[in-house]
Amino acid sequence: MHKQVKSTCCYCGVGCGLLIETENERIVGVRGDPEHPANLGRLCTKGASLHLTARADYRLRYPELRRSRERPRQRVTWDEALDHAADRFAGIISAHGPDSVAFYISGQLLTEDYYVFNKLAKGLIGTNNVDTNSRLCMSSAVAGYKQTLGADAPPCCYEDIAATDCLLIAGANPAVAHPIVFRRIEDARAANPDLRIIVIDPRRSETAAIADLHLPLKPGTDIALYNGLLHVLLAEDLVDRDYIAAHTEGFAALEETVAAFPPAVAAEICALAEAEIIQAARWFGRSAAALSLYCQGLNQSSHGTHNNAALIHLHLASGQIGRPGAGPFSLTGQPNAMGGREVGGLANLLSAHRDLANPEHRAEVARLWGLPSVPAQPGKAAVELFSALKRGEIKAVWIACTNPAQSLPDQAEVRAALQAADFVVLQEAFANTDTAAYADLMLPATTWGEKEGTVTNSERCITHITAAVPGPGEARPDWEIAVDFARRLGARLEQPLTRQLFPYDKPEAIFNEHRESTRGRDLDITGLSYALLDASGPQQWPFPTGARSGRQRLYADGIFPTASGRARFVTVAHRPTAEGTDNKHPISLLSGRLRDQWHGMSRTGTVARLFNLDDEPLLSMHPADLRLRGLASGDVVRVGNGRGQVHVRVKADDGLVRGRAWLPMHWGSQFMNSAGVNALTLSACDPFSQQPELKHAAVAVDRAELPWQLVILRKAAASGELAALSLLARARSLLPDFAFASVGLYGRSEALVVFRAAHGEALPESRLREIDALFGLAADDAAAIVYADPHRQISKRALAPGGKLIGIRLAGETQAQSWLKEVMAAEVEGRDGNDGGDAALDPALIRWALAPIGKRPGKLPQRSRIVCNCADISEAQIKADLEGGATLAVLQEKRKCGTFCGSCLPELRQMVASQAQHAAVEPVA
Fold it and tell me: Could you tell me the pTM of the whole model?
C-alpha cells in the first residue's frame, strides 16, 4: 500500500520538511514538503537522496554481545543484552560510584530520546556524566548567547535573511553546510541587488564566491577582527548610544579594550587590509538592518565562546537586534542539537535551559522528577569524558547515535580510551562505524523514517515527526531502549522510584513531561502538543499556554533574560590558535564540510551519487605551496604532526592563502587507511564551553615517497557479494595493507566502487591476483584484457564480457583512472548518446583502457558538464530536450532538474531563454 508521511531531514540544523513516500512498509521516495516553513519544498542533494539510504545494508538488526575482548560479538536477545548491560553498570556503580559511568549521545537523537538519557544519568544513576556530540559543534554558541544575551536562544528567524540590508557570514559556509539557507541568501540577493554580503573565512569558500567583500582572516584572529570592526563603529559614530544605555551593561569596560584595536592594528593581527576592515564596519554600521550568520568557524576554537560574544557585541552596540533583518543568528550544525540543548543534554545543563551550577535550578528539576535532589558535581564534557575513560576514572560508557572514534579530536587518544574501557555500549543504527570496533555490546536502534518524536531547528522551530516504516530486524526506538535499560538498572540499584521516573509507554508521554519542565522558562512550550503540531504544523518557541503562535524574533522589547534584564558586553581579548605554526609544522590545517557528505558518512557513504562531486579526501593547498614542495595536483603527501599522520592526495586551490591547507572532515577509517583529519587535531578546549579546537592544527606536508600506485574501478552487481555495499565492505579489508589507500563509490542508479592505493614498492603478482579475486576481476579470462611490463612493475587487467567494460585494475601506472571512471559511470547509466547524454566506451575502444594516457581517446566524446547535481542531469541532456521543444516545466517533470535544492534554476532559465531566442530567429522553411 502506498502512503505519504510528513517528516524532517536528519542531516543539518536547517530542519527541512520532507514527504516520505512508502510502498508496502518500504521507503521508496522523498521530496521536500512545500508546507514546511524551513524549506518550503526545497531540498539539498543529501536530503533529496535520503530514500536511497533506507535499506538494510549496513544496518544493525539485532543485539550483539561479546563477554570478553578476545571473542567476537554474538547475536543475543534483547533481554540478554539489557540484563548484561544492567549487571555491568550496576556492578561498576556499586564498586566505584555513580561518576564511574558515562553517557555520550547525539544531536541526531530526537528530543524525547535526549530527555530520557538525561533523566537516566542525572535522575536515576546520580551522575552528570552525560554529554553529546553537540559539544563538538554548538556549545560555544550556547555559551556565547548566555554570556551576552542571557539565554541559549537564537533571536532570529530564516525570514530575516530576506529582510536584511547587510549580511555578515562568519566562520560558516552555508552554500555547503546549510544549502537551503544559502538558497534564501541567493533569493535575497536577487530581490535586493543593494544587499551587501560580507564573508569572513580563512579560505575563499563556495559562500565567499558570492560575497561583495571577503575577509580571509588569519585563523584564530576572530576576536581581533570584531574588536577592530567595533573600533570603527565607535570612531565613526555608528553605534546606538541610546540603545546601549537603555538595554545593555558593561560597555564602558569593553570600549577600553576595543581602543587597543584600531583597524591598522586589527589588520596586522588578522593579515587583512585595513581598508577592508573599515569598509566592512561601515556597511554593517550604516545598514538599516544587519544580520550575521555564523557556525563552526567561530565555535570550534579554544576561544570559541568569546568569538561568539565579540560578534554579538556588534549587534548590541549598533542596536541591530530584535527586529526584522537584524540580529546574531547561530546556524545549528545537527538536526536536533537545539532539542538536546532544550532538555539539558549536556554535562553542565539541566532541563529547560537550567544551569547545573544553580541550586534553585537543581531543586526545580528534583521536584519535577520527584527526587530528593539531583547531583551538583559537574559532569565530564566530551573531551574530558574520554580522557577520564582512558585514565580509568570512568569505567563504562554508553554511546548512542554518534561515532567518537572518528569525530573527536586527537584520535589516537580517543581510540586508546575506548580500548581501555571496562565496558563499551554502542546504541546505533549502522553496524560498521569506526566506534563499532570497540563496542562490547551493540544495540540496534531505529533511525530516520522509523521514529516518532520532535526536533527543533536553528530558528527554534519544533516539528513533530512520525514513523513512516518499521525498523529492520529487532531495531527499537532510542527512548524505548533507554527506558527499558533504566528500569532494569533501577531494580539492581534498588531505586524504589524507578517506575515513577520512567513510566513512559510512548514518546508523547515524554514530550508532555518535557513540556511541563519549560513552564515559565525562556523556552516555554506549554501551549504546544503533538495534536497542535500535527494540525497547525511546525511552531517556534516560546509558545506558552494561551499563545496562538510562536515568536519569530526575540528581544524586540529590549528586555533580556539576565538578572538585570539587560544584555551584557563581555571583555574579550585576542588570543591566537591553541597551536601555532613553526618551522617544523609550517602549515595551518583547516577542516570543514563537503556539500554531499555528512559527518562520518555512515549514511551518506552508502549512496553512490553523493560521491560524484567529491569521491575521495583531497588536501587543498595554494599552488605556490605545492610548487615549493615539488608537488602537483594528484600527488600523494604525508600530513603529520606529533599526534598522528595521514596520507592523502593534494589539489591546487588558489582560494587558500599561502601557508594554509584544507581537508574535509568526513573521511575516517571506513573510507581511508587512517582516522582522517582528526588524527591531527588537538584536544585544547574553550574554558567556558569545553568545545575543542577542531578547526585548526599545525602540520607538516611532505611528498610521500610512494612511487607504486594501484587503482581499481569495479561496476557493482545488482546483488550478492559484488553488490555495491558488499563490495565496498570487501574493499575496506585492503585499506591497512597500504601506506596510502582510500575507497568510495561513484555513479548514480548503479554504483561504481573506486579503490586507490599507493605503496613504497610493487606488490607481487600473486597478491594482485588475490585482489583481483576480491573485486571479481579474476574470473572469465576469455573476457579479460591483460597488460604486463615486469621491468617497469606495471600490471593491468580489464574485464569486458560482451564488449562491456565492468572492471579494471591499474597497477604501477594509473594515468587513465579519471577518464575511465567517467566512462564506466556513463555506461552504468546507459548513456549511449540517444538521450542527449554521453557515449559509453565503444567495444572497439576498450583496448585504450590499458593505455598510459591521461585523457580520453580522441574518438570518445567528452562527458557533458552536469548542470543539476541533485538529479545528475547534464548540459547535453537538457539541450537535447530543449531542441525537442521542452519548456522549463517539461524539464522539471521529465528530468527532475530544478526540483530539489533549486540552485540550478537560474542556469536552466537562461538555457530555456537562449533556446527560445534561437528558435525565434531561425528561418522558416
Answer: 0.94
